[in-house]
Write a structure and sequence with these properties.
It is built from 4 helices and 5 strands, in the order E-E-E-H-H-H-H-E-E. Strands 3-2-1-4-5 form a 5-stranded antiparallel sheet. It is of the alpha+beta class.
Length: about 110
């Protein structure tokens, strides 16, 4: 099992657990005061595992850049967590992931 903590603007908003399938659990404060970070990741409804996987995949670069990264690090294209663990992720604006299994916080500075 692998765990990711999801942060927005420096505040923890959710936990992602990967254990064969993906699950996302927003924390109580974010559910009451925040917003869904994607239309496919609603605050107060069940979230499909594939929606979480696709969301994480969309945080990665696309096209030739992703292909070159996968080849360089010998990562599995099908395993988004493996790619995140191996190369980290440069996310959009204030969103960041804390990778428990890698013990680093990946942030993007504007």
């Amino acid at each position: 099992m692998q765990n990711l903590e999801l942060f927005f603007d420096g505040n923890k908003i959710a936990d992602v657990t990967v254990n064969g399938s993906f699950s996302l659990q927003y924390n109580n404060y974010w559910r009451e005061n925040g917003f869904a970070i994607s239309p496919h990741l609603p605050l107060n409804e069940s979230i499909d595992s594939n929606s979480i996987k696709y969301f994480l995949e969309n945080l990665l670069q696309e096209g030739r850049g992703l292909e070159d990264t996968i080849a360089y690090y010998r990562a599995s294209k099908r395993d988004v967590v493996s790619i995140l663990k191996t190369v980290g992720v440069e996310t959009s604006r204030a969103l960041s992931l804390y990778l428990h299994f890698f013990n680093i916080q990946v942030l993007k500075e504007d």
